[in-house]
Request: fold
Amino acid sequence: MLESLPEKAVVRAGRVFVALRKSGRVPSSKSRVFHAVTPYCRMSLCADEPGPGSQWAEPPGQQITCPACLRRLNRLGNERRAA
Reply:
């Protein structure tokens, strides 16, 4: 199974997550937030999702930066990164 995981995937409690950001423009005063999203899913672990007519931007980021997603990942158990 591990050979079929996306690069930079995070596996917690048997679930796979990748760091994705919402597509679209970000004000220059803010940095992009990368959420924990299960591949082929519209909603992130923190229950955030892109608005109507939008989507998650590809490619996945280097790491998850959303504070709410990070808290929920920590509650799911120990982190294992795909090789």
